[in-house]
């Protein structure tokens, strides 16, 4: 197959009608242009130009026959290169994002809206599930970015960074108003009906490991599937709930519930971003991740 660069030289010479002008446009020497034309004519087995005192004219049985097709081919290749360049500089396509309902609602909702406003051409697919299942979806290539509750380790994915920190606290409604403002040992909380998130969650496992390190075994009287349900039950006085402070700020601020001061205080955990080790980041994904670098 003929070197594509030779066709490019042919096209520029034909368009300019001069070896000198073509050399200037191609930023090579005039002898190099002349040699390229001779090489192309030799490989095609025909003369492409008539050399006249006015310059270079396309030959009737050679150059004129292929000029239109060469022009079209170079145009198509130029458009293909442009599309590849745009992938690196323009946000298009889709991003599949996995997270829990709470992370979507309380942590990244504002960022999603901000990104959508800035890059409306990017389709955002939101996949809601538990952190362990979201991580498995990431490894199976069914989502591109995962926001997961930490700690959670897996060598098959790349952790991009921590988005925010979560402070687990016990909260109660007006039924337990006598506890408001008092320091309460964790052990004493076993005297009250306790509500916790389901057992198969990162939050629950982290809490169990913490109290076990203190020699305690605190099991809930009520297990709930999500934080919103827990908040409603706490408000109605069904028990004392264990929930991240960041997920119940509104209820704390409007006085529907209050935070118990426990001793010792509970450890802080985080929410991190994970991406596949094998994923090639598009410009859109780089821009989306950069939003969390900027805070």
Can you walk me through this structure?
This protein is an alpha/beta fold. It has helices at 4-16, 19-26, 30-44, 63-89, 101-118, 131-139, 202-213, 227-235, 249-253, 283-293, and strands spanning 49-52, 55-58, 94-99, 123-128, 145-149, 157-172, 183-185, 194-197, 222-224, 240-244, 258-259, 261-263, 268-276. The strands form three sheets. Strands 3, 4, 5, 6, 8, 9, 10, 11 and 13 form a nine-stranded mixed beta sheet that branches. A two-stranded antiparallel sheet has the order 1-2. α2 crosses α3 (30-44). The radius of gyration is 33 Å and the shape is rod-shaped. The two termini are 53 Å apart. The model has no long low-confidence stretch (mean pLDDT 89).
Mind sketching the topology for me?
Blueprint: H1 4-16, H2 19-26, H3 30-44, E1 49-52, E2 55-58, H4 63-89, E3 94-99, H5 101-118, E4 123-128, H6 131-139, E5 145-149, E6 157-172, E7 183-185, E8 194-197, H7 202-213, E9 222-224, H8 227-235, E10 240-244, H9 249-253, E11 258-259, E12 261-263, E13 268-276, H10 283-293
Parallel strand pairs: 3-4, 3-5, 7-12, 8-9, 8-10
Antiparallel strand pairs: 1-2, 5-13, 6-10, 6-11, 6-13
Structure classification: alpha/beta
Radius of gyration: 33 Å
Order of helices and strands: HHHEEHEHEHEEEEHEHEHEEEH
What does the main sheet amount to?
Answer: 9 strands, mixed
Roughly how many Å apart are the termini?
53 Å
Q: In total, how many beta strands? A: 13
Strand content: 15-25%
The helix content, as a percent range, equals 40-55%
Number of helices: 10
Mean pLDDT: 89
Query: What coarse outline follows from CA principal-axis ratios?
Result: rod-shaped
* Uncertain parts: none
